[in-house]
């Protein structure tokens, strides 16, 4: 038979166990970003262009007549050059490499930037064929971000290339 | 002393103090710190039971599940709401107890030798428990689920496992479909099933497993969790919206602590910590540790194949095979990898009785470092040298309170590997060969290094387990004291009290008939 002091002790300790679980199951509260901030998620998954080379007449002459394709397009995909500026300041300068053993898969990037809510100037430039100089996709726009908003920068060639959402 | 040994020793001292402090209100059998594994398993069954109800009644689909679980919490609070809260709080409790169990086994040095298998099979369970827990939060698909899902995918993307960033699945609200919910259900059902399978493997090489704590502990724990569920029911946050970042949220630090840690540091730091800790846990058994003691040895000529050692071995180290020379008989066989060298098998062997007249007492199963014959010889020598009004023999567990300082002219101290290795007939033998009383110093209740030594000792003395102490032995001349390493004064006090009692009864008529082995007809 338990003594009264033992019963009281057990009640206190079981109560402390429950209180410990109850407290740390919900507290302290957590906020991932400050309440006056927003997120820009730059996420692109894209197949780089194939880096084709025009065969010379001599090369073509050496090939069987039925295989004289004018362009030599290897399986590998081009690296992708990607840049992003926020309010005129560079926030990303990177080269994305194609995935896969034969470098023939998509190039992919996922970055998130925590920025103060409000108006910003965002510019994103991409070149998916490094044989050609410069950037073949450019998107620059003034954006207004609400506190807690998530703005996505993505790429879809069917939607005209780079887009903000 | 290495840093690891010093750290382990320090934590061990703290843990032991806490355990012994809880003995006062709970007693050994109900002390939660002495039954962390069983407590954890109990909470896991609460999680499974409440989860089955939730799974049965929740609507499937990523939006429907949010509304239906909201209905449970608010409209059906008296059943579904309470079960949901129980599910969450029991899961938190399970993870907490699991970590405490890990720390306890580590600081007690229970990760090498015959415990290697349990240690190695326990480490992956940590990962499974956390994966199941994190996946459970996603199912609700509220803002906390969104935060966890996005943060987890960002963490996973640091590893070179996906060709495309998995966080892209959570870019915009229309990225999520009901197929995501189906995947979550698979994760949240499949991983716990793996966890249960892993737990089965974890305790596979242990016999007499405490699958559940005592009824009193179960009822009290359930009452505490129910009270918590009523006072602070688990509720959903606002629904997930991937177009926004969740604001301030009530956060489950038991399960989701990894996300703030990743935000505070980086995925590289988090993975380094997780993989590093896991590798360290796996590597612990190869760090320097005490050499294993000699394991039990079977003597085929004296083994009767009675199964008692098989029944009493705490670590399933004994199996019975057909006797090679006696058709129809069985023979005990010891697996050296599993043997804990506790000697409990020697204590259970009916051939270990000291009343056998043979000069060399060879028993069926024995410990090379403390054979039964040596124990009998030592006892006979000690009894012959005892003088005084009340001569007491103290059989003391080497891992319990240090009894050596109690040895005097009227007190003989016989250290044992574990009190479970003492055949009860030795108690009667001591009383019939000159002792006025026998005191057995076991570990505290529930605190036996070999799990069952203290329990078997008490059951054998009480006649509840074979081999039992004969009823003709007067109970007043036998005293059992549970005194752990730090309880030397408790043991000394108990001995003094026992002596006082014997002094007042020494002339009484319950003295057993003297026994002289050399003149006996016993074989």
How would you characterize this protein structure?
The complex is a heterodimer of chains A (165) and B (523). The model of chain A has no long low-confidence stretch (mean pLDDT 92). In chain A, strand 9 (150-156) and strand 10 (161-164) form a beta hairpin. Chain A has helices at 4-24, 57-62; strands spanning 37-46, 53-54, 71-72, 80-86, 89-96, 107-116, 118-127, 137-145, 150-156, 161-164. Chain A starts with a helix and ends with a strand. Chain A has two domains: 1-30; 37-164, Sandwich (Immunoglobulin-like). The longest helix of chain A is centred in the first third of the chain and has 21 residues, at 4-24. Chain A contains two helices and ten strands. Chain A is an alpha+beta fold and 165 residues long. Chain A is elongated, with a radius of gyration of 28 Å. With 523 residues, chain B is α/β, with parallel strands linked by helices. Chain B has two domains: 3-286, Cytochrome Bc1 Complex, Chain C, CATH 1.20.810; 297-519, no CATH class. Chain B is 49% helix and 7% strand. In chain B, the strands form three sheets. Chain B has a four-stranded parallel beta sheet, sandwiched between helices. A two-stranded antiparallel ribbon of chain B has the order 1-4. Chain B has a two-stranded antiparallel ribbon with strand order 2-3. In chain B, helix 1 (3-26) packs across helix 4 (77-107), helix 4 (77-107) packs antiparallel against helix 5 (116-139) and helix 4 crosses helix 8. Chain B is elongated and about 95 Å long. The chains are: A alpha+beta (165), B alpha/beta (523). The interface between A and B is large, with 46 and 49 residues.
């Amino acid at each position: 038979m338990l003594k009264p002091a033992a019963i009281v002790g057990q009640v206190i300790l079981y109560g402390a166990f429950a209180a410990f679980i109850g407290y740390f199951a919900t507290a302290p509260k957590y906020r991932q970003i400050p309440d006056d901030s927003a997120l820009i998620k730059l996420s692109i998954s894209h197949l780089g262009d194939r880096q084709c080379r025009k065969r010379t007449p001599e090369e073509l002459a050496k090939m069987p007549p039925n295989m004289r394709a004018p362009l030599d397009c290897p399986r590998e995909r081009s690296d992708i050059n990607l840049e992003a500026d926020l309010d005129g300041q560079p926030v990303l300068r990177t080269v994305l490499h194609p995935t896969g053993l034969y470098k023939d898969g998509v190039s992919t990037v996922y970055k998130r930037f925590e920025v103060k809510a409000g108006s910003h100037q965002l510019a994103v430039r991409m070149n998916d064929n490094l044989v050609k100089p410069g950037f073949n996709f450019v998107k620059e726009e003034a954006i207004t971000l609400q506190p807690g908003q998530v703005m996505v920068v993505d790429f879809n060639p069917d939607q005209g290339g780079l887009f903000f959402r | 002393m290495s840093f690891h040994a010093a750290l382990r020793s320090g934590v061990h001292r703290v843990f032991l103090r806490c355990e012994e402090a809880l003995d006062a209100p709970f007693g050994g059998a109900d002390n939660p710190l002495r039954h962390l594994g069983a407590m954890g398993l109990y909470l896991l069954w609460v999680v499974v039971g409440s989860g089955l109800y939730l799974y049965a009644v929740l609507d499937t689909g990523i939006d429907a599940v949010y509304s239906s679980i909201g209905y449970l919490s608010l409209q059906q609070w008296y059943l579904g709401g309470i079960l949901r809260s129980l599910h969450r709080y029991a899961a938190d409790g399970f993870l907490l107890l699991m970590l405490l169990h890990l720390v306890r086994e580590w600081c007690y040095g229970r990760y090498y030798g015959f415990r290697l298998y349990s240690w190695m099979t326990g480490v992956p369970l940590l990962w499974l428990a956390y994966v199941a827990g994190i996946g459970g939060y996603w199912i609700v698909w509220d803002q906390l689920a969104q935060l966890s899902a996005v943060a987890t995918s960002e963490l996973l993307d640091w590893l070179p496992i996906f060709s495309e960033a998995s966080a892209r699945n959570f870019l915009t609200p229309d990225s999520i479909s009901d197929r995501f919910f189906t995947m979550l259900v698979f994760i949240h059902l499949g991983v716990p099933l793996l966890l249960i399978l892993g737990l089965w493997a974890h305790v596979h090489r242990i016999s007499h497993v405490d699958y559940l704590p005592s009824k009193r502990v179960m009822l009290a724990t359930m009452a505490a969790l129910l009270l918590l569920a009523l006072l602070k029911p688990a509720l959903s946050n606002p629904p997930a919206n991937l177009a926004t970042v969740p604001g301030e949220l009530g956060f489950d630090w038991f399960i989701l602590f990894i996300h703030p840690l990743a935000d505070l540091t980086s995925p590289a730091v988090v993975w380094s910590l997780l993989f590093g800790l896991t590798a360290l846990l796996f590597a612990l058994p190869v760090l320097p540790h005490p050499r294993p003691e000699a394991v039990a040895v079977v003597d085929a000529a004296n083994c009767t194949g009675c199964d008692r050692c098989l029944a009493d071995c705490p670590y399933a180290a004994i199996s019975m095979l057909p006797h090679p020379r006696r058709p129809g008989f069985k023979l005990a066989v010891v697996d050296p990898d599993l043997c804990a060298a506790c000697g409990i098998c020697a204590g259970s062997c009916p051939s270990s009785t000291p009343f056998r007249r043979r000069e060399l007492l060879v028993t069926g199963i024995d410990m090379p470092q403390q054979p039964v014959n040596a124990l009998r010889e030592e006892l006979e020598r000690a009894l012959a040298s005892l003088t005084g009004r009340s001569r007491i023999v103290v059989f003391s567990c080497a891992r319990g309170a240090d009894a050596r300082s109690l040895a005097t002219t009227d007190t003989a101290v016989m250290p044992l590997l574990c009190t479970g290795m003492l055949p009860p007939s030795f108690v009667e033998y001591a009383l019939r060969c000159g002792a006025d009383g026998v005191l057995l110093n076991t570990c505290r209740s529930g605190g036996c290094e070999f799990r069952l030594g203290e329990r078997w000792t008490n059951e054998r003395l009480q006649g509840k387990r074979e081999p039992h102490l004969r009823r003709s032995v007067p109970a007043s001349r036998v005293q059992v004291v549970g005194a752990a390493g730090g309880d030397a004064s408790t043991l000394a006090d108990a001995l003094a009290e026992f002596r006082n009692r014997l002094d007042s009864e020494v002339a009484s008529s319950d003295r057993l008939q003297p026994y002289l082995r050399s003149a006996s007809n016993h074989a």
